[in-house]
Amino acid sequence: MTDRLKLGLAGLGTVGSGLVRLMAARGSSLASRAGKPIEIVAVSARNKRKKRDVDISQFRFVGDPVALARDPEIDVFVELIGGEGGVAKEAVEAALKAGKHVVTANKALLAHHGASLAALAEKHGVALNFEAAVAGGIPVVKVMRESLKGSDISRVYGILNGTCNYILTLMEREGRSFAEALKEAQAEGYAEADPGFDIGGFDTAHKLALLTSLAFGTRPAFESVYVEGIETIAPADIEAADGLGYRIKLLGVALRTESGIEQRVHPTMVPKETAIAEVDGVSNCVAIDGDFVGDVMLIGPGAGAGPTASSVMSDLLDIARNHILAPFATKAKDLMPYKKAQMRTHEGGYYIRLSVFDRTGAFAAIATRMADQGISLESIVQRLASAELPGVHRRREGTPATVVMITHQTTEAAIRKALQSIARDGHVEAKPQMIRIEKL
Ligand SMILES: NC(=O)c1ccc[n+]([C@@H]2O[C@H](COP(=O)([O-])OP(=O)(O)OC[C@H]3O[C@@H](n4cnc5c(N)ncnc54)[C@H](OP(=O)(O)O)[C@@H]3O)[C@@H](O)[C@H]2O)c1
Question: The domain that contains 239 carries what CATH number?
């Protein structure tokens, strides 16, 4: 490395152009913060002629990101293209092999190939930094890689996808259906035209896989994450949760258990009075439970040009100061294989919503099915559809009523068996809704 830190920037979209803007805004103050000047010497994007809202005329344009990754003039390859494979992977590998430091915001790439890329970075004595890949502007990677290393971590969890949190917040505050809230999120620019990756929980799962590795010293194991999205959450669930003192959030949770590590992404009921329940809109939050440190929580912007560029810059400042650590805090060769705890052994409370045919014996049969599995109930609420409220219409024997139950601590296996039996008995109109309650 010379007396200047020279960057090759691949990707000039939301994050890439945010970085160009941040560097222009900071000007010479960056050099004093970094101990040396940091400058972009060359850029790459798909379309050289695309009209952009940042001026890139002073940078050399390299059409092929892989060629930029190997460019003899650069010290650091900044990968802001995205995608788990393809050109992003090829370019990052080329950069590491050429002895260039790499900074990336690409959670998909690292969740799938983190262990091998970390090994490559260590082999060539360079950094592989990814602060922006998890929770955008929240500096959680640095906190977990460095600041919390004095403690053993038992659980890391959080709201890791702003799109989902925005949709759930709208559903709760304004009584919207999932479809209406999604449409509004798209109109506001908070959801992609193809939102499946976000609302299906996969983006959260990518970030969780990285947090798990940082927390437990294991190889990132995205394929072992249990994933449920928020598509099935209905206004009836939001309303019932509210009445019972909960809010529904899409959480990613990694938990050390006796049988291995749980990694799960699913809609979760959290008590209203907890800090995480207050994290609304597009904000993100990461909570870490450690032995000596206790419980730590970080809240902030999870995406967007400014926050992600700020995280990329933090990674660059570390490289400029020659502060280079193992990508996942533990040396790549010492990362342990991920030992998966089976989802059926998960223990917790559950919220169940059933649409029950209101006929003699139905409720007793449901209670028996729960008792058969040793499940005890903390509360049970029966709600009638508004058109069936007494005095509005005469209620007919056999029409469905909504039954909401909260269970005491039980296992996933028991709940699944009970719900299968209840569905098989024919007393419910539709597939039962089940939402896990996280103990906080
Ligand atoms: N957006 C966020 O808030 C956010 C937050 C955290 C992490 N991230 C991560 O940051 C990365 C970038 O996200 P983004 O939102 O900035 O994406 P984006 O706006 O879609 O920009 C992608 C950039 O990559 C360029 N590109 C695509 N394919 C290319 C190819 N084959 N060769 C060269 N350049 C190519 C595009 O070129 P053109 O401009 O010419 O089309 C564009 O400049 C992703 O890994 C994402 O997951 C994003």
Answer: 3.30.360.10
